[in-house]
Amino acid sequence: MRLRPTTGRPLAALSLALVLAAACGGDGSPAPVEPPPPLAVTLPSTTLACTVGDSLTITAAVSGATGTPSVSYAATGASVSVTRSGTEARVRCVAPGTATLTATALDGSRSATANVTINVVAPLTVTLAPGTLTCRAGETRTVSLVATGGPPAPNVTLVSSSETVAVAGVSGETATIRCVSAGASVLTATATIGTQIARATAIVTVAVPPPPPLVATPSAAALSCRTGERLTLTLNVSGGVGTPAVFFAARNALVRVLPNGTTATILCDDAGASAVDFTVSDGTSSVTGAVPITVSAALSASIDAPVCWLGGRGTLTVNAVGGTGPISVTLTSTGTPAFDPSAVVQTATGATLTYDCGTVAATGAVGYLVRRGTESVSGSVPVTLRSPIQSVRVLTAPSVTILAGSSANVIGDVVLVPGAPTTTSRALTYTTTDPTLLTIEPAAQGVLVTPKRSSGAAAITITSVAAPAFFVTVPVTVVSAPSITVQSVDVVSGGVHTGPVNPSNVTGTISPNLTVDVGAFIVDRVVISLGTLQVNMDFRSQPDAARTGSLALSPAFDTAARDPSSGQPLMPNGTYLLAVTAFYHAAGSSTTQSVSTTYSVPFVIANP
């Protein structure tokens, strides 16, 4: 074979020929191709474990790749969450359970996977509740002991720091504490799962049990004796601290007590009901009690028969003392008060009787016969049937004078006997002796009395509804209205009335002649005015008798009077009217009334 040189590429052509010759074999056939190694992915372990809240980092190893492989991670189940960081898987354990993590490697068209099982367990905890416990020696208490975590289930132990104080045991989720003696102990609960450990503590305080309660029991619940006898009372004392002290005392002077330790000798001196009081004390506590004692003597009876108020019901009580045995009481009446013998109620100490008091005041008697054993006593007791009303009174004036054309208020009231029932009716009726003169109408208090005529006299009778025998009478006088009459006006010169004044030319001093007639009323004062001049006639310092009926008055007015300092007239010239007002009141009344009049002729003041 002849080689021909090639312009520009002789060495390159030769190199390619050599390569091809080598690839095809010496004889020109294709050379064999080596297959790539198998693609594989491996994980650090086939099984992993973690606790809720922990995290794992898992890295997959890839082999047999011809290029740069990619790795992805995926997990099944809700126990873990997976995030990828490069070729690593970040696994967070979120809930107890089992999850499978799959790693997948891709190399071109080739892939490989590997799985790891992840067991997620709950965190280990242990609790003791309550955290503090108080008990008394000899008692047994329980507390709650709860351990959580795993699987597997935790192994739990409970230890007392002082078993001379408290001994602890566990049964399921309950710890039993046996309180042994006074002191304090710490309970420690330990829970383990593998290498995990959790602990909880509780404090137990054991108190010394209190002493048994102090008790004092008398040898008899009640005692009885006759005067001159002796009794013995013994107290059975138990409990308390040490040797208690015992005290005895007589309730009253009917018996005497001679103490001797827990025993007392009782001397029965006088008949009646008494008792022996006792106190037992150990310094920290005490008990008290009493034993009633009945001292018998000759049978006697007392009768309580309070006043029986008319319209109500009375109660009579018989109390018997002395003697022995059941009591029987028989009651009889002389006619007042009347009662049914079957109404007598026998009691342990006598009898009671409730009866009607009737409506008529009277004094009667109730006889009694009291039997007890072989003894009896009899007698009688007066019974008074009495009205609860003492009187009827007038709250307004005791007598009334009414001006014709006006009205007056009359108010009565019921006065009760001291001690009478407050429920007694206080209602009243009001009547008049002359309905043709007076009209009576109800008012907010009492009645309103109005005259029908201009004058006259009558009376208002105020009567108790509950007891008509009680009443009061109020005299009423009707009078006509007071009047004022001006008869004339005179000229006054030198203190002498010289004749009628000329109303159209008034000078100097003038004096009106007037009459004030108040009838049965009483005049207080009369005011006479003429222009700026005024005369105030006050009669209140005079006796009432001098201020009634008709009063003749002659006041004087100096129309020419001048002011001492200025010299100016006190009453300027002009025309003026004469006005008169009388103020008066009714006898027994503090209310002031008035009547006025004006002289019909005007006066012309014409002083020089």
Proportion in β-strands: over 45%
Total beta-strand segments: 52
Report the mean per-residue pLDDT as an integer. Answer: 87
CATH topology of the largest domain: Immunoglobulin-like
Over the alpha carbons, how many angstroms does the gyration radius reach? 64 Å
Taken from the alpha-carbon principal axes, the silhouette is flat
Tally of distinct domains? 6
**Main β sheet profile:** 7 strands, mixed
Cα distance, first to last residue?
192 Å
Number of helix segments? Answer: 1
Helix content: under 10%
Instruction: Specify the CATH architecture of the largest domain.
Output: Sandwich
CATH class category of the largest domain: Mainly Beta
Poorly predicted runs: 1-25
Structure classification: mainly beta
Keywords: Signal
Signal peptide: 1-25
Describe the structure.
- Keywords: Signal.
- The N and C termini lie far apart (about 190 Å).
- The chain folds into six domains: about 40-120, Immunoglobulin-like (Sandwich), CATH 2.60.40.10; about 130-205, Immunoglobulin-like, CATH 2.60.40; about 215-295, Immunoglobulin-like (Sandwich); about 300-385, Immunoglobulins (Immunoglobulin-like, Sandwich); about 390-480, Immunoglobulin-like (Sandwich); about 485-605, Immunoglobulin-like.
- It is built from one helix and 52 strands.
- A hairpin with a 2-residue loop joins β6 (about 80-85) and β7 (about 90-95).
- It is an all-beta fold and about 600 residues long.
- The relative contact order is 0.06.
